[in-house]
Amino acid sequence: MVQAVPFFSMQAANQGLDVQASVARVVARDRYLLGEETRAFEQAFGAYCGVAHCVTVANGTDALELALRALDVGPGDTVMLTANAGYYGSIALQLVGARACYVDIDPRTMTLDPQALAHALKRCKPKAVIVTHLYGQLADIETLCALAARDGVAVIEDCAQSHGAAQGGRRAGSFGRIGCFSFYPTKNLGALGDAGAVVCSDAALAKRLTALRQYGWGRKYHNDVAGGRNSRIDEFQAAVLNDKLGHLDACNAQRREAADRYHAAFAGLPLQAPAVSRQDYVAHLYVVRSAQRNKLQSFLATRGVQAEVHYPIPDHRQATAAGHLLEGESLPHTQAACDSVLSLPCYPGLPRPHQQAVVAAVLDFFRR
Ligand SMILES: Cc1ncc(COP(=O)(O)O)c(C=O)c1O
Q1: pTM above 0.85, yes or no
Q2: Does ligand 1 lie within 6 Å of residue 102's CB atom?
Q3: Pocket test for ligand 1, best of 8, 57, 61, 213 (most atoms within 8 A of CB)
Q4: If 0-12 CB within 10 Å is exposed, 13-18 middle and 19+ buried, where does residue 327 land?
Q5: Based on C-alpha coordinates, what's the Rg of the chain?
Q6: Helices 352-367 and 293-302: crossing angle, nearest 10°?
């Protein structure tokens, strides 16, 4: 019988966690929104990221949208971003009425290419740049921030896949003006439902974000900030996140260990493996690239191994796309990535026999 190797298991990832206790704590306190758990998590997660402020919101897409609103990005503004990061940034831009301008990726890391950004900034002045730390891999964030700063352009980091990834002692979310996080269950720090956060070190920005996530209220029933809406996490999610935050580094280490095992096992195969396995890679996804991606995915399925494609369609080719490329640009590296990427199961608690089954199936595919 073929062993089923699911892409992700929340139960395995949450092993040892007493979720019932987190829930009971909230019920006992009888406060469900913006209470003690939320406040404690905001303080702890801000400190973890190395920033002064953390404002929790309902999900990662809201985090991006509210970050744009906080920076006054709206109709008539352009924002640069990559087109291989799942369309979340593009949705946020559509929500605020701004225009996306897509820039190509570095084919090695599949994150925003500093050279491509430098070239694009010579031709167009955006209001902001969204840098996505894709697959758990920090982009070349210091170079990108320096380029943006030279032109007075704000950097928003999309850290939904990179909780805890670090470079030079600084963590994802602490480099740009604002960092945006999702705590969707599969993320490196995952809730038991939707949740998100925005982090920054600018008190005025944090104040605006706090108003924007709750109807635009400066004070209760005082609608002071335009563009506000309801985007809160509940106390249950905050309680779970509080209990999980202390395990984040250990969970990231487990993800990296699985990635290292794959890396060693696949050496010599005609596959492109993730570029790094140091502190700047928290192995949110273990993404290989293969010219035979679709065949490999189908073969793995016959062996019970669920592999996924993150992401098959570049943003500018989506049916609802509204952004643009600079004239004469074609994003060849972005398209090539979308055509060749394949994510293998990689999460904390991934059973060792499942890791061995993944390795055996990949090796068999290339041996045939
Ligand atoms: C890179 C990236 N940005 C943003 C999001 C959006 O987060 P959410 O699903 O919480 O809205 C995700 C999550 O799926 C993501 O992977």
Answers
A1: yes
A2: no
A3: 61
A4: exposed
A5: 20
A6: 130
pLDDT at site 346: 98
pLDDT at res. 323: 80
H-run or E-run covering 252: helix 248-266
Q: Model confidence over 308-331: pLDDT tens digits?
A: 999 999 999 999 988 888 888 889
pLDDT of residue 251: 97
The Cα 147–Cα 199 span in angstroms is: 21
Q: What's residue 171's pLDDT?
A: 98
**Segment (H or E) for 313:** none
Q: Is the CB of 61 under 6 A from ligand 1?
A: yes
Q: What does DSSP say about strands 154-158 and 166-167: parallel, antiparallel, or unpaired?
A: unpaired
CA distance 255 to 348: 5
For atom 2 of ligand 1, the residue with the nearest CA is 160
Half-sphere exposure of 365 (CA within 13 A, CB side): 24
88 Cα–ligand 1 center, Å: 6
Say what the pLDDT of residue 247 is.
97
| Same-fold call for 10-245 versus 248-367 | no
88 lines ligand 1 (CB under 6 A): yes
What is the CA angle 250-251-256, rounded to 5? 95
Measured in Å, residue 83 CA sits from the centre of ligand 1 at 14
Q: Please tell me if the CB atom of residue 60 comes closer than 6 angstroms to any atom of ligand 1.
A: yes
| CATH H superfamily, domain 248-367 | Aspartate Aminotransferase, domain 1 (3.90.1150.10)
Residue 145, Ramachandran bin (φ over 0: left; ψ between -120 and 50: alpha; else beta): alpha
Cα 285 to middle of ligand 1, angstroms: 13
What ranges do the domains of the chain cover?
Answer: 10-245, 248-367
Regions of the chain with pLDDT less than 50: none
What ligand 1 atom has the least distance to the C-alpha of 62?
11
157 lines ligand 1 (CB under 6 A): no
For 58-78, the DSSP string reads SSHHHHHHHHHHHTT--TT-E
CATH fold, domain 10-245, is Aspartate Aminotransferase; domain 2 (3.40.640)
